[in-house]
Amino acid sequence: MRNNTKIRILGISGSLKLSSSNSALTRALGGLMPDGVEYTVYNSPGLLPHFSPDIDGDNSPAVVTEFREMLVASDGVILCTPEYAFNLPGVLKNALDWTVSTGEFYEKPTAVISASPLPSGGSKAHLSLMMTMTAMQANVPEKAKLMIASINKKMQGDVITDNNTGEELKTVINELIALIQSKQNLL
Ligand SMILES: Cc1cc2nc3c(=O)[nH]c(=O)nc-3n(C[C@H](O)[C@H](O)[C@H](O)COP(=O)(O)O)c2cc1C
């Protein structure tokens, strides 16, 4: 492991809703990070224009460049998504589409979390997001995949009130960090 090197993790919520539980979860993850991790939330997926290959490339919009740079600067990414109509919300898919040509997710240690007030835990959105991450060849460890059911009963504001969920999230974080460290050991 590289000594004295901070691990940088970026959290991204797939919801634009002001009272979003996934955005609250994304923020709450910051409080679960161990020492030595610099955790940042990307707050602007809603500012990214609709993806089109016509505006991709050398003259991509500045917000897109900023998003890509934040991904490149991160050792790992945590995605938290709701489920809309049995799939991931368009805003998250749109953000991910902007990285296909430039490959920021290629071999990127990534955690995939879905959270829903329903018992399914957003399983279909999770599956769909996993298909996208597989297409982009992101590195998603098995234990860094989590579906959270009844999320409305497990958080109050930005605080995770359900102990079991807190432990599950710590497992996700630890798996992600272990993968990041194993990659750093190879450098
Ligand atoms: C347009 C729309 C479609 C939805 N479809 C689903 C769905 O297919 N599965 C599900 O579990 N919840 C569905 N929901 C409920 C969301 O899970 C719920 O609104 C949740 O709070 C969204 O996550 P957020 O709080 O992070 O924004 C839907 C909500 C909306 C507004």
Considering the chains and any ligands shown, give keywords for the structure.
Rossmann fold, 34% helix, binds flavin mononucleotide, two-stranded antiparallel ribbon, 5-stranded parallel beta sheet, 5 helices, alpha/beta, 187 residues
Can you tell me about this structure?
With 187 residues, the protein is of the alpha/beta class. The chain has one domain: Flavodoxin domain (Rossmann fold). It is 34% helix and 18% strand. The chain contains 5 helices and 7 strands; from the N terminus they run βαβαβαβαβββα. It has helices at residues 21-28, 62-72, 90-97, 123-135, 163-185; strands at 7-13, 37-42, 76-81, 110-115, 145-148, 155-156, 159-160. The strands form 2 sheets. The protein has a 5-stranded parallel beta sheet with strand order 2-1-3-4-5, with helices on both faces. Strands 6-7 form a two-stranded antiparallel sheet. Helix 3 links the parallel strand 3 and strand 4. It is globular, with a radius of gyration of 16 Å. The model has no long low-confidence stretch (mean pLDDT 96). Bound molecules: flavin mononucleotide.
What is this structure's SSE topology?
Blueprint: E1 7-13, H1 21-28, E2 37-42, H2 62-72, E3 76-81, H3 90-97, E4 110-115, H4 123-135, E5 145-148, E6 155-156, E7 159-160, H5 163-185
Parallel strand pairs: 1-2, 1-3, 3-4, 4-5
Antiparallel strand pairs: 6-7
- Rg, alpha carbons: 16 Å
Can you summarize the main beta sheet?
A: 5 strands, parallel
CATH topology: Rossmann fold
CATH architecture designation = 3-Layer(aba) Sandwich
Number of H- or I-type helical stretches? 5
Strand order of the largest sheet: 2-1-3-4-5
Estimate the global geometry from the Cα principal axes.
globular
Average pLDDT across residues? 96
- Top-tier CATH class: Alpha Beta
Distance separating the two termini:
9 Å
How would you spell out the order of helices and strands? EHEHEHEHEEEH
CATH fourth-tier homologous superfamily: Flavodoxin domain
Helicity, in percent? 25-40%
Bound ions, cofactors and other small molecules, one mention each? flavin mononucleotide
- Total beta-strand segments: 7
As a percent range, the share of strand residues is 15-25%
> How many domain modules?
1
